[in-house]
Amino acid sequence: MAKHIEINPDNPQPRLISIVLDTLRKGGIVCYPTDTMYGIGCDIFNQKAVKRVYQVKKRPKLKPFSFMCSSLKNISEYAHVGNTAYRLMRKHLPGPYTLVLPGSKLVPQIMLTKQKTVGIRVPDSPICLAVIEELGNPLLNTSAMRDDYDEPVIDAFDVEKLFGNDVDLIIDGGEVYPNPSTVISLISEQPEILREGKGDIAPFL
Question: What Pfam families does its record include (predicted)?
Answer without folding.
Answer: Sua5_yciO_yrdC
